[in-house]
Amino acid sequence: MNLKKLIQGLDIVSCEGETNREITSIHYDSRKCQKNSMFIAINGFNTDGHEYISEAIENGATTILYKNEVNKKQSHITYIKVKNSRLAMATLSNRFYDYPSKKMKLIGITGTNGKTTISFLLGEIFKQWGVKLGIIGTLGNYLGETLYKGTHTTPESVDLQQILHQINEEHIPYTVMEVSSHSLELNRVEDTNFDIGIFTNLSQDHLDFHKNFQNYFQAKAKLFHMTDKANIINGDDIYGEKLISLSKGREIPVYSYGIKNNCDFVAKNIKIDNKGAFFTVNIENNSEGFYINIPGIFSIYNALAAIVLAYTEGIPLEITRKALSNLPGVPGRFEMLDTNTPYGIIIDYAHTPAGLENILKTIREFSKGNVIVVFGCGGDRDKGKRPIMGEVAGLYADFMIITSDNPRNEEPLSIIKDIVPGIKKTGKPYKIIEDRKSAIKSALAIGKKDDIILIAGKGHERYQIIQNEIIPFDEKKIINQLLGEGEVDAKDD
Ligand SMILES: CC(=O)N[C@H]1[C@@H](OP(=O)(O)OP(=O)(O)OC[C@H]2O[C@@H](n3ccc(=O)[nH]c3=O)[C@H](O)[C@@H]2O)O[C@H](CO)[C@@H](O)[C@@H]1O[C@H](C)C(=O)N[C@@H](C)C(=O)N[C@H](CCC(=O)O)C(=O)O
Ligand SMILES: Nc1ncnc2c1ncn2[C@@H]1O[C@H](COP(=O)(O)OP(=O)(O)OP(=O)(O)O)[C@@H](O)[C@H]1O
Ligand SMILES: N[C@H](CCC[C@H](N)C(=O)O)C(=O)O
Ligand SMILES: [Mg+2]
């Protein structure tokens, strides 16, 4: 694309050098720059992109978009100074790929827990409907049936617009994407045209980044001002209620869902067993029955969000009903392993106090024996959630093994030390085993008939992040190996 055209109307502080040149790609990482590309220098939290400008040029960048001062400018390079390089990157990426979000129906999901699960429920509903759906989220980016692995739940703006463009190229009419609070705060989704926004819930997470709950909520709330067709909101969540009042000022419909409050779509006649949950919803004056084959009250909330979206899109209720009752399972979410053990083993991605509480409460309801939980907390992430997770585990489990999750650059034992005071409040027995594999091994050795062992926190992840290294760590394979038997259950491998 011609640079002059690309930067037209952009809020530019200064521009030096030739603007009549072709830009073949846009990059925020100097190591990825190609011939005739644009490098956008971002002043990050760890390092400063401005330090890599010469490397970007060596790799072929001919245009540099930047925010801070740049010394030693080269005459054959174009330098464009802006006030906010992340924001400019989002605007330029959107234009570079010719506004891809405008050419599809885009559904954004935000909230602390449930985003990936709801996107998978929608994936199954659309599959049954026979309409292609792109999915962008924690598990990667699905273009129809093809999975492209990603590094973030919500990609950086350039990557996001490139994926949306690819979705257009493949003639996929709908996309559902998880919109993380980081992405809303860091302008990754700026200028993206969302049709519908879905809100799941808000509870403690990511306060390392947002600093306080109000900022966290404000970041999430942005999505509901970016939508132009409808907002679908959990009316039982207090932050959902706030969003409903905020959305009322907008000229688009707001559909609320819930169990307790006076919502537009309310689940009633709830019956939960160890395989799933049945409930009815009043739709067009008919009491419609649904069964989701994932247990737990939280599954009903996830199902409701998907049902409302499907209903408002005109998807026949029969299709939604069939999809929800035959879900193939969401990788790493309430994944009950198929083992020959006298106890059950569940792998789940619960990594927040609310997530852990929901899953443990659900297991508690159907477990005939003891509930044993193996978990830790991520390093370099919200420290405040650690003792709360300890307390939640103590309240609902019979025995806990506290271990490492992704310690990143923290000392695993100091993370564990932050969890312990919460457990101590409950007086429940626990053990500390820093090495996650040994912790799992110990749980398998303790397990007795009818017990449930929950291995929480890492879900679909197949690695551990220790310092800056990503080390292979596949919980299913490890359990398999420890049990010394054949395949445990390799359905999503
Ligand atoms: C807090 C956060 O989100 N940080 C993101 C941010 O990093 P940053 O601003 O600190 O960047 P930096 O590492 O200081 O580097 C500054 C710039 O120098 C560039 N650079 C760096 C080195 C080099 O050799 N050359 C070069 O050009 C980098 O590409 C970058 O553009 O911008 C980077 C580039 O896009 C992201 O990779 C990085 O995600 C980090 C790795 C991360 O872990 N993010 C997590 C917390 C996250 O975003 N999670 C949410 C999900 C959360 C949820 O559960 O809801 C997500 O959407 O994935
Ligand atoms: N509606 C819900 N309410 C509370 N907890 C939930 C809900 N849905 C799922 N969970 C719990 O949270 C965990 C994570 O679920 P999921 O991956 O769907 O959330 P997410 O919002 O995509 O998380 P992330 O922010 O990490 O992408 C699940 O493994 C489960 O334990
Ligand atoms: N999306 C979440 C994932 C947490 C998963 C957990 N295993 C951890 O590393 O803390 C985050 O970035 O906080
Ligand atoms: Mg997710």
Automatic annotation (TrEMBL):
<keyword id="KW-0131">Cell cycle</keyword>
<keyword id="KW-0961">Cell wall biogenesis/degradation</keyword>
<comment type="pathway">
    <text>Cell wall biogenesis; peptidoglycan biosynthesis.</text>
</comment>
<dbReference type="InterPro" id="IPR004101">
    <property type="entry name" value="Mur_ligase_C"/>
</dbReference>
<keyword id="KW-0133">Cell shape</keyword>
<feature type="domain" description="Mur ligase N-terminal catalytic">
    <location>
        <begin position="22"/>
        <end position="97"/>
    </location>
</feature>
<feature type="binding site">
    <location>
        <position position="381"/>
    </location>
    <ligand>
        <name>meso-2,6-diaminopimelate</name>
    </ligand>
</feature>
<keyword id="KW-0067">ATP-binding</keyword>
<feature type="binding site">
    <location>
        <begin position="111"/>
        <end position="117"/>
    </location>
    <ligand>
        <name>ATP</name>
    </ligand>
</feature>
<feature type="binding site">
    <location>
        <position position="457"/>
    </location>
    <ligand>
        <name>meso-2,6-diaminopimelate</name>
    </ligand>
</feature>
<dbReference type="GO" id="GO:0005737">
    <property type="term" value="C:cytoplasm"/>
</dbReference>
<keyword id="KW-0460">Magnesium</keyword>
<keyword id="KW-0547">Nucleotide-binding</keyword>
<comment type="similarity">
    <text>Belongs to the MurCDEF family. MurE subfamily.</text>
</comment>
<feature type="binding site">
    <location>
        <position position="30"/>
    </location>
    <ligand>
        <name>UDP-N-acetyl-alpha-D-muramoyl-L-alanyl-D-glutamate</name>
    </ligand>
</feature>
<feature type="binding site">
    <location>
        <begin position="405"/>
        <end position="408"/>
    </location>
    <ligand>
        <name>meso-2,6-diaminopimelate</name>
    </ligand>
</feature>
<feature type="modified residue" description="N6-carboxylysine">
    <location>
        <position position="220"/>
    </location>
</feature>
<dbReference type="InterPro" id="IPR035911">
    <property type="entry name" value="MurE/MurF_N"/>
</dbReference>
<dbReference type="GO" id="GO:0008360">
    <property type="term" value="P:regulation of cell shape"/>
</dbReference>
<feature type="domain" description="Mur ligase C-terminal">
    <location>
        <begin position="332"/>
        <end position="459"/>
    </location>
</feature>
<dbReference type="GO" id="GO:0005524">
    <property type="term" value="F:ATP binding"/>
</dbReference>
<feature type="binding site">
    <location>
        <position position="180"/>
    </location>
    <ligand>
        <name>UDP-N-acetyl-alpha-D-muramoyl-L-alanyl-D-glutamate</name>
    </ligand>
</feature>
<dbReference type="InterPro" id="IPR000713">
    <property type="entry name" value="Mur_ligase_N"/>
</dbReference>
<keyword id="KW-0963">Cytoplasm</keyword>
<dbReference type="GO" id="GO:0009252">
    <property type="term" value="P:peptidoglycan biosynthetic process"/>
</dbReference>
<dbReference type="Pfam" id="PF08245">
    <property type="entry name" value="Mur_ligase_M"/>
</dbReference>
<dbReference type="GO" id="GO:0071555">
    <property type="term" value="P:cell wall organization"/>
</dbReference>
<keyword id="KW-0573">Peptidoglycan synthesis</keyword>
<keyword id="KW-0436">Ligase</keyword>
<feature type="short sequence motif" description="Meso-diaminopimelate recognition motif">
    <location>
        <begin position="405"/>
        <end position="408"/>
    </location>
</feature>
<feature type="binding site">
    <location>
        <begin position="153"/>
        <end position="154"/>
    </location>
    <ligand>
        <name>UDP-N-acetyl-alpha-D-muramoyl-L-alanyl-D-glutamate</name>
    </ligand>
</feature>
<protein>
    <recommendedName>
        <fullName>UDP-N-acetylmuramoyl-L-alanyl-D-glutamate--2,6-diaminopimelate ligase</fullName>
        <ecNumber>6.3.2.13</ecNumber>
    </recommendedName>
</protein>
<dbReference type="Pfam" id="PF01225">
    <property type="entry name" value="Mur_ligase"/>
</dbReference>
<feature type="binding site">
    <location>
        <position position="461"/>
    </location>
    <ligand>
        <name>meso-2,6-diaminopimelate</name>
    </ligand>
</feature>
<feature type="domain" description="Mur ligase central">
    <location>
        <begin position="109"/>
        <end position="310"/>
    </location>
</feature>
<dbReference type="GO" id="GO:0051301">
    <property type="term" value="P:cell division"/>
</dbReference>
<dbReference type="InterPro" id="IPR036565">
    <property type="entry name" value="Mur-like_cat_sf"/>
</dbReference>
<dbReference type="InterPro" id="IPR005761">
    <property type="entry name" value="UDP-N-AcMur-Glu-dNH2Pim_ligase"/>
</dbReference>
<feature type="binding site">
    <location>
        <position position="188"/>
    </location>
    <ligand>
        <name>UDP-N-acetyl-alpha-D-muramoyl-L-alanyl-D-glutamate</name>
    </ligand>
</feature>
<dbReference type="InterPro" id="IPR036615">
    <property type="entry name" value="Mur_ligase_C_dom_sf"/>
</dbReference>
<dbReference type="Pfam" id="PF02875">
    <property type="entry name" value="Mur_ligase_C"/>
</dbReference>
<dbReference type="GO" id="GO:0008765">
    <property type="term" value="F:UDP-N-acetylmuramoylalanyl-D-glutamate-2,6-diaminopimelate ligase activity"/>
</dbReference>
